[in-house]
Design a protein that fits this description.
398 residues; alpha+beta; Creatine Amidinohydrolase; 2 domains; 6-stranded mixed β-sheet; 13 helices
């Protein structure tokens, strides 16, 4: 097995990302950008520094005129220095362990100290923050105290504008994540038997993902293996000791994270004889997914893609069981912005990576998803996860 089998993002690409962000900052008249990431959403810091917090949070501060600074907690400091593509790494307690663990680290400072250092060097009139749903009050308060006269604005959209079009290296990492995920599903499908618990299935998929070379399951959810008419109706769930049975719906739902990049895959299955109502519904869902994928290319809009998929469901009388749009972006998060809305003409561009997620929720016998990960090209889409292409016929025709 060669190094070429395990692609990486080169150092120069990380350096280019900082410059691209600064160009966006300049266009938006931003003098300072403060990005925050935690375990729920490590993506912004990972994108710029290749650092993801292990048991803490992290941040990146980007002055328009100066060098970027990575902000690490105490416990992860050595890890951050080892991993970071940003060379200036500071230890700051506000992104440390939530218990407030004290470490004797020389030179420990606060965010206020860093902001004052920047204020002494540069003119800062307009500041952007990134991390809309997670940005901590303790950091925000220090930011506004040090820069009382500056305008502070939400700059989340700026970062996603930079991130939305993936490079060849990023797509290679996502392709690797997809290949690992395909193999993990094939592994469990060969082994599953009636009487296995949802946790047994979870363990097999998770183990295969790690053995395949992924760093973890998808950011930010564990494999979900709901089974039967009760558990599959939960939409999001934690796995249990419930034993899977012959003739019932079992949802295999998982993602793999490789070099920070995620692929997602969902497959509905039945052990033993497949009831007609399950087979018919899965076949319609597959047709809905195919209608979307057939139109998935640069220039297509979110409205037309969702309409194509929903049209199949409407003709089959199943649209009322589809609670949300069927296409979303995927990359450093399993589900990241932009969500592709059903009622807007958001235009796809070459290099985007998306998940097509056909979810039928609340049927009499249960719920299920079919989900694939794809890369958008100029004249179509590359199917990154290929498991459904190879195995769905076992349900729809078996």
């Amino acid at each position: 097995m060669s190094a070429n089998d395990f692609p990486k993002i080169p150092d120069q690409e990380f350096a280019n990302r900082i410059q691209n962000v600064k160009q966006k900052m300049e266009a938006a008249s931003l003098d300072l950008l403060v990005l925050y990431s935690n375990l729920l959403d490590p993506s912004h810091v990972r994108y710029l520094a290749d650092v993801y917090p292990i048991n803490e949070s992290a941040a990146v501060i980007v002055p328009l005129e100066g060098e970027a600074i990575l902000c690490s907690g105490q416990a992860c400091h050595a890890w951050s220095v080892h991993k970071s593509k940003i060379k200036d790494v500071r230890v700051l307690p506000e992104v440390g362990e939530v218990a407030g663990t004290e470490y004797e680290i020389q030179g420990q400072i606060t965010f206020a100290d860093v902001f004052k250092e920047i204020k002494d060097k540069y003119s800062v009139r307009r500041i952007g923050t990134v991390g809309t749903l997670t940005f901590p009050q303790v950091i925000y308060r220090q930011l506004t105290n040090v820069f009382p006269d500056a305008e502070v604005t939400n700059a989340e959209a700026l970062m996603y504008e930079v991130r939305v079009r993936k490079s060849a290296n990023e797509i290679a990492c996502m392709r690797k994540a997809a290949n690992i995920l395909d193999d993990s599903f094939a592994n469990v499908l060969d082994k599953m038997r009636p009487g296995w618990t949802e946790l047994d299935i979870h363990a097999e998929i998770h183990g295969a993902i790690l053995r395949g070379g992924a760093e973890n399951v998808a950011i930010a959810w564990n494999p979900m293996i709901p089974s039967g008419p009760e558990h599959t109706q939960l939409c999001m769930n934690m796995n249990t000791l419930r034993q899977v049975q012959v003739g019932e719906i079992i949802d295999l739902q998982a993602g793999a994270c490789y070099e920070g990049y995620n692929a997602a895959l969902c497959y509905p299955m039945v052990l033993g004889k497949i009831p007609d109502e399950i087979r018919d519904s899965v076949r319609i869902a597959e047709e809905s997914m195919s209608a979307i994928i057939d139109r998935l290319k640069s220039g297509a809009t979110s409205r037309e893609l969702n309409a194509a998929g929903r049209g199949v469901l409407e003709r089959a009388g199943l649209a009322k069981y589809s609670p949300y749009g069927q296409v979303h972006s995927i990359g450093l998060l399993e589900c990241e912005s932009p969500w592709l809305p059903v009622d807007q003409d958001y235009e796809l561009v070459e290099g985007m990576t998306v998940a097509v997620d056909v979810f039928l929720f609340g049927l009499d016998w249960g719920s299920f998803r079919i989900e694939n990960t794809l890369a958008v090209t100029g004249d179509g889409a590359e199917l990154l996860t290929k498991f459904n292409e190879n195995y769905l016929s076992r349900i729809t025709q078996g």
